Structures are given as structure tokens and as C-alpha cells.
Amino acid sequence: MHIEHVIPQCLGVFKNNLTLTELVCNDCNQFFGDNLELALGRDSLEGIARYRFGIGPQKVPFFKRICLKVEGPQQVKGVHVIPKLPGGKASHDIQAVSQVGFFSPSTGEYEYFTMAEVPSKVELEEKGLLSSSRPIIFYGEPKELLEGLKGKGIDIRITEIKEEHVDMPPAMVPVRVRARIDAILLTCPP
Q1: Secondary structure class of 175 (helix, strand, coil)
Q2: Confidence tier at 16 by pLDDT (50, 70, 90)
Q3: Are 4 and 20 in contact (CB under 8 A)?
Q4: Does 53 share its domain with 73?
């Protein structure tokens, strides 16, 4: 038997939180938890705010509906980021996610893609992203990212790996947020 929380735990854990029993079947209760509550608690703008302020389970949000990218400064412009847990000793509260960056000759800037977003080899070639003499930038484990690219038919030969640690800027940095509100999030009450 599952306990049915009137206020889902993803929205915070409260002393004497009201719970119900045997009003919702186990399958439906699990569906609500896996689909509605997780989406609201960890894949929404509200979920990011809860995470940043330490409300609810402190698991890193997953982003299917939200994209956060650094707007500047130039050395990290366009990098995909996620918020860090509150209370850390870092002077910034964002961190880069695993991604790969290709230099775009047409814009003069790097375009960054998480592995789920990497376009096809043909699309990368059409944009001129594979023909640049500029280095490819990896945030994350380079070997893992190279394997991910190879799995998408993009076989890149690396002759030299130069490791440079580029951290997020210590001062306030603008981050562009793109969020998709879909049927799941619309189902959740405000």
C-alpha cells in the first residue's frame, strides 16, 4: 500500500503532512509521482526555484522542458548550465553540464550541444561546424562525449587534447532560460 501525500513531497516535506490511504490505487499513485510530481518538482521553473532554495528533495533537476544557457561573457557564452545546490563554497551558483561545442564560422562563436541535442553529421557540416580549424570544446569527460558523437555517426579524430579548466565567472552572469510548458505541467494546479 502506498501513502498518498496530499502535498507531494517534491514540493517540500512538512511536519504532520496530510496523507491518505486506500483512496488512489497503487498504479495511479505511482503514475502521479513519476509523471506529474517529478515534472513539477524537478523539471519546471518552479522546480528550479525550489532546488535553489533547498525546498524538497535536493536532487539535481533534470531538464527535458527547460534549457539554461549562459549569455556572457564570451569565453562561456552559450554553455548549457544547471543550478548548483545552495550553500556551496563556490562563488557562482551554476555549473556546466556535459556538452560539446563547435566553432561556427558564420557567427564567430561556439555553438554548444548536449548529447541529446547534437544535430546530425549532415546538419553540422551544412552549418560549417565540422570544418572549422578551431578546437572542439568538451564540458564533461572527453572520451565519453567522443563515444556519444561516434554513436551519432560523427567520428572525430583527436590529435591533441589540451585540458583547460574554464569555470563559470565569479560575478553575476546572465543566463537565458527557455522553458516548455506542456500538457503535464498544465495539468498541475498553480
Answers
A1: strand
A2: confident
A3: yes
A4: no
Full strand arrangement of the beta sheet holding 109-113: 109-113, 99-104, 137-139
**In the prediction, which pLDDT does 123 show?**
92
| pTM tops 0.90, yes or no | no
Residue indicated by cell numbers 496523507 = 19
Question: Does the pLDDT value for residue 73 go beyond 70?
Answer: yes
Which tens digit of pLDDT belongs to each residue from 167-188? 565 556 777 878 877 887 777 6
Strands (E), 34-116: 66-70, 81-83, 94-96, 99-104, 109-113
Domain match, 18 and 70 both:
no
C-beta separation of 76 from 165 below 8 A: no
Range of the domain at 32: 4-61
Decide if pLDDT at 118 tops 90: yes
Q: Is residue 151 located within the same domain as residue 164?
A: yes
User: What three-state secondary structure class fits 185?
Assistant: helix
Locate the DSSP E strands across 40-183.
66-70, 81-83, 94-96, 99-104, 109-113, 137-139, 175-179
